[in-house]
Design brief:
The complex is a heterodimer. Helices cover about 25% and strands about 15% of the residues of chain A. By secondary structure, chain A is of the alpha+beta class. Chain A folds into 2 domains: about 30 residues, no CATH class; about 60 residues, no CATH class. Chain A is elongated, with a radius of gyration of 22 Å. The model of chain A has no long low-confidence stretch (mean pLDDT about 95). Chain B is of the alpha+beta class. In chain B, about 30% of the residues lie in helices and about 20% in strands. Chain B is built from 3 helices and 5 strands; from the N terminus they run βββββααα. A 5-stranded antiparallel sheet of chain B has the order 4-3-2-1-5. Chain B is rod-shaped, with a radius of gyration of 29 Å. Classes of the chains: A alpha+beta, B alpha+beta. Zinc ion binds next to helix 3 of chain A.
Chain lengths: ~90, ~130
């Protein structure tokens, strides 16, 4: 009989074959969903995915792109934000 | 055509959102930029020109470009570069029992053999931390 705490579906089941040839079930934590752009909803690339405990071990640069809004906006939407910023910086009389 | 000294905002990559000025023109697609960004060859697609000029010569140094940017009327804080962090010296931690022994050697109950050992340990700790 399975241990009662493993009967809940909050942990996902992974089938593994041991070196001796037995089939066993490992219970692992579920991965969070894919990160998406805040503006357009596109799936972000370059953002680390996996079990939270594993990702926490990574360095900051391995977790998200090294640019402003990295891991929040996609590169295209970030560019639009920067163009807006540039328009605000233009000198009128210069 | 882009000229040397034109001020732009970088809109892509790690330096996005930073002010820079054209220092050199490589060809019809690429320019060399410097200022608050890193000194880099940069595609014109990745720049948004602000329509103002900085008074610099071709191949100007970073400090000159930043000065020219300020003269052109753009306010910014000088970015910190190359400053080594000051490491705060932590006080040397010694066990309470050992500290008692060092403060009042007459009252301590340790042997002479142990005393010499303790002195060695304390020496090691203090010398390595100071260096
Ligand atoms: Zn987007």
């Amino acid at each position: 009989m399975v241990q009662p705490r493993f009967r809940s579906r909050s942990l996902r089941r992974v089938h593994r074959r041991t070196p001796t040839g037995d089939n066993v079930i490992h219970y692992e934590r579920r991965k969070p969903g894919k990160p998406q752009c805040r503006d357009c909803g596109k799936y972000l690339i370059g953002v680390a995915r996996g079990i939270v405990a594993q990702i926490k071990k990574l360095s900051k640069t391995q977790k998200r792109p090294e640019r402003p809004y990295g891991g929040v906006l996609c590169s295209g939407c970030m560019r639009k934000v920067m163009v807006q910023k540039a328009k605000g910086m233009v000198k009128q009389d210069g | 055509m882009v000229k040397v000294g034109e001020i732009a905002l970088k809109i892509a990559g790690r330096d996005a959102g930073q002010l820079c000025a054209v220092v050199d023109v490589v060809d019809d697609k690429f320019v060399l930029v410097d200022g608050l960004t890193r000194r880099k060859k940069c595609n014109l697609i990745h720049l948004e020109f602000l329509g103002s000029q900085a008074k610099i010569k071709k191949g100007a140094k970073t400090e000159e470009v930043r000065k020219a940017l300020k003269e052109a009327g753009f306010d910014f804080k000088e970015p910190k570069e190359g400053e080594a962090r000051d490491k705060k010296q932590k006080p040397v931690k010694i066990r309470k029992s050992l500290q008692k022994h060092l403060d009042k050697p007459e009252e301590s109950k340790l042997d002479n053999k142990k005393e010499s050992k303790i002195k060695k340990v304390v020496k090691k700790k203090t010398s390595s931390k100071k260096e």
